[in-house]
Write a structure and sequence with these properties.
By secondary structure, the protein is of the alpha/beta class. The protein has 12 helices and 9 strands.
Length: 446
């Protein structure tokens, strides 16, 4: 088995349906733990818009930072760290220019041709039967979107038909409104935005500052959702972006709950003294959180730490009573005294994370939500990677610290929103020593 950055390393790859590409991969993981005397298992999970090459590069660069920072934490000196690297089908395209929503490579942003080409590139992305045929029919409607309300209604209905709304998981991302709103009304809602509508990144304004005519080049998250600006064609593009977001959200949850959860439970059963540390980026944060959440089971998964790096899901996902009588969908992951996470939960946040901020600004438009700045902490549909855990008990706030900094509060089952505005400058800017130090500091507290 190979080493990466000096750590024993095994990959486990899932197909779209959460089945294992290599059924023997869990055996390789147990062999690694036993042969290399692993005491701390670091489970890494990449986000949306990563192909396998991108994911491996992310892991290698992040682990290089972990290796460089580890000597600054004496408590970890005698603890053997091994890595279980999760690979999952979160991106169809290998070329950044082909990211859905990358309209800059497709021609004029207000041209129906942009929508037609986006639809073509989305074929093969969705799991529902007949999805590609529905996208083909939607392509024929694109030229009439600007002038024909009936075309807009049919276009929206065809696009939504590629999804399976029955699998809605209760996350606050406006999914219910997305399926319920009349199609023309939905596209109209997604067609108008002003410069002040999207919560501003640190040091800048709103939508005018986020490069609305260009796709984000950073890999690993909902990068295509940066395509957020005005006009009917833009409304159709935002509709496609949200549709792709929803599919990847569903897949991340399925792979976490049905794929990763039983594997880690099996490993824990064989090695009960092993410490398990879950680390997810973007939609990978959803995978590992869904794994910790898991299906109802008397032998549920127990892990030691959870690190959510620029997580692409609701800032109320872990909340208690964010509305009277309503908890976040993943509340059980951190709810005392039965929480499956025994140690610290680390959440990095950055106002520079345009992907998460804009993803949830789109959700707010879908739901016709009005906020002072769409996507910020006051928005019902804000994102965890931008705002941190909101309305969640036992949550502390601080800053992402350099190596050697004092995370004195890291102890027990407590959440920590770590502001990284001066460190994480975009959605995928996580390969930093400060990020590695926070992960390792949480590990050392267990």
């Amino acid at each position: 088995m190979p080493d990466v950055a000096g750590f024993p390393y095994v990959e486990i790859q899932f197909a779209k349906d959460a089945s294992l590409v290599d059924p023997h991969a869990p055996d390789l993981a147990t062999d690694m733990i036993q042969a290399r005397h692993v005491r701390d298992l670091l489970v890494l999970c990449h986000g949306w818009n990563n192909d396998m090459s991108d994911a491996r590069k992310l892991y290698a660069e992040l682990l290089a930072q972990v290796a460089a920072v580890a000597p600054t934490i004496p408590a970890l000196a005698q603890r053997g760290i091994g890595v279980l690297a999760v690979l999952w089908p979160s991106k169809r395209f290998a070329d950044d220019d082909l990211i859905p929503g990358g309209a800059a490579s497709l021609g004029a942003p207000d041209s129906p041709l942009v929508v037609i080409q986006m639809l073509e590139k989305l074929k093969g992305t969705f799991d529902a039967p007949g999805a590609d045929a529905a996208l083909t029919r939607a392509q024929a409607l694109a030229p009439g979107l600007e002038t024909n309300p009936a075309a807009r209604r049919e276009f929206a209905d065809l696009v939504r038909s590629v999804l399976t709304p029955g699998e809605h998981d209760g996350d606050l991302d406006a999914s219910s409104a997305f399926f319920a709103r009349e199609g023309d009304e939905l596209i109209q809602a997604l067609s108008t935005t002003g410069d002040d509508d999207v919560a501003a990144p640190a040091g800048g304004g709103g939508a005018a500052d986020i490069g609305a005519l260009q796709p984000l080049a950073d890999a690993g998250g909902s990068a295509s959702l940066a395509d957020f600006f005005g006009g009917i064609v833009a409304g159709a593009r935002n509709l496609l972006n949200f549709t792709t977001y929803y599919q990847m959200k569903q897949r991340a949850g399925l792979i976490g709950e049905a794929g990763l959860n039983p594997i880690i439970r099996s490993i824990r059963a064989r090695f009960p003294q092993l410490r398990v540390h879950l680390v997810g980026h973007s939609f990978g944060a959803r995978v590992v959180t869904a794994a910790a959440h898991g299906p109802a089971s008397p032998d549920g998964l127990v892990c030691d730490t959870l690190a959510l790096l620029q997580a692409a899901f609701s800032h109320y996902a872990l909340a208690e009573n964010y509305e009277p009588g309503t908890n976040g969908f993943f509340r059980s992951v951190v709810a005392r005294p039965t929480a499956p996470i025994r140690g610290p939960v680390v959440i990095t946040t950055s106002k520079n994370d345009r992907a998460v901020g804009i993803a949830y600004a789109i959700a707010s438009r879908v739901a016709n939500q009005v906020a002072s700045a769409l996507g910020d902490e006051n928005d019902k549909y804000g994102g965890l990677g931008r705002n941190g855990a909101q309305k969640t008990p036992h949550t502390g706030s601080g800053r992402l610290l350099p190596a050697g900094g004092d995370y004195a509060g890291f102890a027990g089952n407590k959440l920590f929103n770590l502001n990284a505005d001066t460190v994480i400058m975009d959605h995928s800017d996580i390969r930093k020593p400060q990020v590695a130090y926070a992960i390792l500091s949480a590990m050392a507290a267990t």
